[in-house]
């Protein structure tokens, strides 16, 4: 994904603010749908980004920046490429430039966070901590302006005095940045404190570059028309909206706010389509529900432990199934093309018993898993303990596991998002092929489950001799990365 070198314009724009845990791809796309002109990603720390590898995700048609532990730190797509601004947390000019170089072909602008007052930002000399070090601010911004092809901006808070604030912003302007965002509160102030429109106005009247006003949510901005009133009150070129957009992203819509149910369903669709982690999806939906968290739907959302359960709570179960099936088909298609293109040898899987199964935790008894049932059966039959071999597919970083029991191998033909899930599905294949109980709700022969219940009952009656826990080291599980031949022992269940 290559963005052309045309500079992003910051005049007369509606902008989605950078918000931790909120400004991920689904929210940014939703804000664009409702009329935002520019969208900022959440603040991402320079050190974390410099550990990332840029990966083109052909399944999702995104560009992912992936950490060594396979977590996606930043995900973007072609739809937003000319309007997304990457905000970083940094306290070092050289690191800042390295991050800018890493992402500049996939974003429209680079921003430095100089206003966040939270400890996780300031303790590393980042965020609002920079406001007390103008020399470092100047070095970071000057280095970025000279070293990157994207327009550079920064986001600040106001200082205790107007004189010091104006002195600082003048110095910032001289670095050559394209625009400056001003949150109209001091470092120690919080949302309950009034925003200083007069200070933002004084800055806007002093500088020649665009000034973006921020901090007006709730006090000033409750509907779309309020955005323009806030802009006029601050004499700013543009307005950046944070909490009001988090509560309902349709705040950017000229026609007025859309019903929250409609907005949330649209957000969920983006979250599923772009494989957003369910915990992040759940967090953003909770911010939208706010006082409705105790409603029946709010309680369903609170209980959800997967993207599928979130979809079920909002009547989107069929959409989830359809979308994930399309993704699986796309993965299979790309994998086949990749193997054919590079002449990848096909592994001999003769003798492996296969089934198309998935592990759905909701379908199993509490505290019981297929792996536990399989281990229990092997002990009872005096068989060697199961051995799991897990492979990871480079194309999409999905996992598949083969379990060996009594010299017979078992495998699911469906790939999973984690090693743990892949091992559970392999255990299911073995148990089902032997006609054995696997711990599903409603099964009659659940000796392992009964033993656990008896143990819990004894606990409630008084002290007892505890049954030895299943040793974690008993099952050795080699983990193999396809294509490298490298093996290492997996830990954990």
Short description:
Helices cover 38% and strands 17% of the residues.
Give the percentage of residues in beta strands: 15-25%
CATH C-level class of the largest domain is Alpha Beta
Number of strands: 18
The average pLDDT is 87
How many helical elements?
17
Largest sheet: 8 strands, parallel, barrel
The structural domain count equals 3
**Sequence of strands across the biggest β-sheet:** 1-2-7-8-9-10-11-12
Low-confidence stretches: 1-6, 340-348, 452-493
Helix content: 25-40%
Alpha-carbon distance between the termini? 38 Å
In the CATH hierarchy, the third-tier topology of the largest domain is known as: TIM Barrel
Tell me the overall shape: elongated
CATH architecture of the largest domain, by name, is Alpha-Beta Barrel
Radius of gyration: 27 Å
CATH superfamily of the largest domain: Aldolase class I
| Content-based structural category | alpha/beta
Oligomer: single chain
